[in-house]
Amino acid sequence: MANQGWHYRLTADALHALTDLVSDIMTLATISYSLKPATSRFPTGYGKIESLGALAVSGLLLSGGIMIGLQALMALSQQFFPEIAHILSHFEIFGHGHSHSHGAEHFGPNINAAWLAGGSIIIKEWLYRATMKIANQKRSSVLASNAYHHRVDSLTAFVALLTISASHFLTSAAWLDPVGGLAISGMIVQAGWGNTKSAMLELADVAMDEEVKENVEKAAATALQAQSSGDADIRGVQGIKSGQNFLVDIEVGAPSHYTVGQLDAIKNAVREQISADVKGVRRVTVRFTAEKEGVPFADEFIAGKEEDLDEHGHEHDHDHDHSHAEGHSSSTQVNGNANKRK
Question: For residue 258, which of 62, 128, 175, 247 sits 20 to 30 Å off, Cα-Cα?
Answer without folding.
Answer: 247
